[in-house]
């Protein structure tokens, strides 16, 4: 985080003449997408939005001046967490429309490439559908990824818990590095997992509710989390993401209509 | 802002057991709604979102523990500003769906009353449609207002410019009180208004682009803005809003299905 | 009403060669929009449609040959009157689609400007959304107004009741001037208002049902209505509307695609 | 037309207490549906709406007090006439939604049976889809017919032209009986038919434009029309319709939800 | 069925270079559309899909190399059969979208004419709506027919039952000729018709469930069916269809956008 | 394939009394979903549909009598193959609606569990969205998987090509085992891959067209395919699928509304 003002390339913090200027050099927009959903008794519900937002800021810093950052999409696809208070879920159609409107508006201002930076696994399918849908409607290039999936090996190396993936050792570690203020450190406890979890070993989409997996909404043992683990995971993902996006910027563009 | 932790009643900052607890006393959710759109050469484009978010926090503080606050809806209806770089506009249908999903989710968690706190005039009609649409689909009570419209007299008394309503003396004053960090004070300049403005005196909906009104996207003379004016406007609106919401909480509820 | 055949510029009364001819001179279409909803025990439920239709005819007469008039949209947005028998309400999405189809068809025939003449306050938000939606999809100019809002001062001067706005002194006066046949004069009685009405002083959108305001569906004291009051209100609105539309016809058009 | 006030059972002409009363005896609503489309150089474009409206009034009179009549749906499905000035076409989806809203509203007021009285062949498929769609969503009975299809034999017997079906001898005859004011008698001329017409003998849906069939938008020889022919056709259809609706009222109702 | 490989012109059986080649000569695509719905106790539920598919293959053979055949649409509009196990019904909107996507994709590959070959009467209205909808969105020619409606006279001559139209003498005869494998010959029995059937003599759309017509889901007396009757009906329809499609291929095309 | 009549549990081959009987024992429906899209110069375009259909039949055989099989969904999500002739793509929304209608209909007949058997990777995201969407609307259990993803280790062990995943050694091997009739053996050739392929190593969603990856639409070297490899892959996936589905049938059901 070596930038004097890391927020300058965020559209929400810029005036229109500043955007007009920045857009001359920018070659893509980064769109951070999170969720408002339960993350166990020790993480605030904005966990995924915060992580996506911070990750996008770090990535934007590395890519400067090639990328602008949109306001974070703070709501995601969370039907499976609705049995825990406070979770808010969009219908997939709403999120696809929302992203289509954002991309379409910025395309009008001259941008042709868009990177959907996802902080919540539950959004993955909908973002895939958004990519298929939007690129059929507009002559743009789209790239979408869940940023942690870019650090699979680092995660395997760092995480000690048997299970992870939500309100877990990995997520708390990331937050310790990027957004410690939303952890309730004194409330951290192991996930109260349930038998159904055996299902997780199959790569299938099983439409279950998260309280069928875990009583307290958490997985694994977040007590093993550390800022160091988080730093390794995030920085690995960041290096990968930077490379991918720079490659992405080389791809040929479809003709503007 | 007399609260030790003014953000505690924001859903994004709470864990699910904290929400579970708070929702026992809460009788409504406040949903702040802004926009990402040009506000002249001297206000960052998140102007309306920031103001709605801050206003909702101040109002939540007064209503505590009766209100919870959702993550801010950072995008609004801004087709009329699309000729200025950086503006992002949703289609009205997208915003109605988004609000319907938010209300529906929180209704599942036990809330029955929802207050749409609007910071952007361009959203007004869509929020009206959202009220009509959502209350037909769900047995909930909805209240929507543009918060500055609650302080019409104070605004008339405080504002000296001939014109106001966007990137203006009134808006800069409000920001000086609530979010001075997004003003570029040294760039403040008068609105470069155009003849078309004569139309504004009729209470009609004329689908024009904002650059038909003003060259630099601003109205009136924001150099006359002051934190004091902002405080009077905001605090007046706040007192009105508190009274309205408290009355609203007395209204009978429709039967849950 | 000084025209020999006031209905000639209504599209429903014209053959296609007559339209072909008229469209050479016409520069806009007027689209009257009303409702089918309760108007107390003394006005037929087509009140708003009749008033919008008559007003459009009077305005068309003044603008002749610059305006054509479409068939009246007889259904509007009336969820708040659904507790009274006979009320029919459209979903806002239906009305937006309907208006989009009408505008799109006439745009195909060469018209580029459209005036939505609204006779029902409950339609206002949806018409605003229609303006935002349609002008994003088609290169047209749109103007929308509730015609009585053009005569605010005259109404203030003429109306004696404490409350008005629906099935009231103002509306009966207008009908006495424009469509006396749908008044049941011998049934006129004061509105049976309820306490909730105190809310009405705030400029907020409170999604309530009309029977929470008034027992008989009426407001104020319609016994004070007169044809003279109606004439003043309607003729004032008419003069304003004519001026506004003539100005509107001067606005530059977007390029046809 | 033996009723003193034939319009009394029209919802648009009734106050809410009158509807409340009438609905106690009424067992169905009649919904007249027409079009705004070219009908050759000698019939005004509201031809189908007028005929549907008049037919519904005549039918309502016979069924009194069993039927209420809704405001006429003045717009229909007319893409095939769009090459003639003045035609306005809805998308099928819009019309289905509009009818769904009308039926849903009246179902809320206690009606369970609905008769779609169609005056325009081009609406037939969409009304079929409306029946399939609405009865899946609501526990109602629906009946739809193009009223002239109930008088096929009478039409065969009365009409002398080789072709008919639009702006034709049959339609002008009907209008002479039901709505002579929208005929331009001195403009009546034969249809300027084209070779493509051979297609008409197959019962297929060929998505063609009407100007591929006929130069002036008319078919056959409307000069052979007469009020007497119209009376026979209309009265035959009316007798059939009355019988069908009375049978329809005997059909068992699905359970209200 | 004189072709060595009658399936060669089916898109599902071709590689992309084979399609690339065939599309140079092909001037239309045939789209067979059926249903998955009850057909009495003696016909499998794919009856309509099988018949449409076979008919399209026979027609494609006659038209070779002018027509390509798409995969059969195996689901149709069957709300009226939902009271019999196994029936699956699409909403009309789903089928319209599905057909729009198929037509749009093949239009991208260079085809401009599309023939919807319908095997199920319940699809007729939705296919009509599909024609109106798709040809408004894309510059294509569309033709739709229920193939048995092309053989009305042959059917009248061949069929002896009083009633037919579903799981009947006519349908079993057709299957004996085209797809005998889905008949349970030893289960054939007369339709167990009910009184409601009197309604069938009116050309009206009465939204009834099929079990209101017949206890066992069948009509008439299928025991009178024969392969010979089926051959006459199918071959008559085939000859008509070939002629119609060849004429259709002569119709002028709209300009590609 | 040890069953005398492997097609008996396919809904399309059953009469309604047979379904009525079978549904008493059946505890789920299998829904095979494929695509119509290019698969290189040596596989017919129905490749994915055939494989999904055959796999579902084999699985149904193992699960008999617990599973019924619906007609195959022959169209999928293939925008990335549209630059190759013959490909047909649905919009994701269409496929979600289609699956929702199928599930909804069978739920009406008493089934509560549904297994989406996917033969095409491009469908994965849309099926995930379908699961999230449908289970929010209906009280059903849904399970979705791309069947080859259940045999990841077997595939790694069997496949020798560097790349695979489409029109490849793996897919041809599977077809040799399940549907050899759609392979053009004499046309098999290596994929003509392009540099862009380096992207494939990242787990990201990059909205590219398949002709950016490969000139002839194929990947890897399908000449190394064999029936034995196919058998191992398919039988491994089958054993996994059977186990997963049997576990799935143990999951608790949501209450029927």
From TrEMBL, chains A, B, C, D, E, F:
Keyword field: Hydrolase, Metal-binding, Zinc
Superkingdom of the source species: Bacteria
GO terms (BP aspect): riboflavin biosynthetic process
GO molecular function, one term: hydrolase activity, acting on carbon-nitrogen (but not peptide) bonds, in linear amides
Cofactor(s) in the UniProt record: Zn(2+)
Stretches of the chain forming a coiled coil according to its record: none
Listed transmembrane segments: none
Family (UniProt): Belongs to the creatininase superfamily.
Protein name: Creatinine amidohydrolase
Taxonomic classification: Bacteria, Bacillati, Bacillota, Clostridia, Halanaerobiales
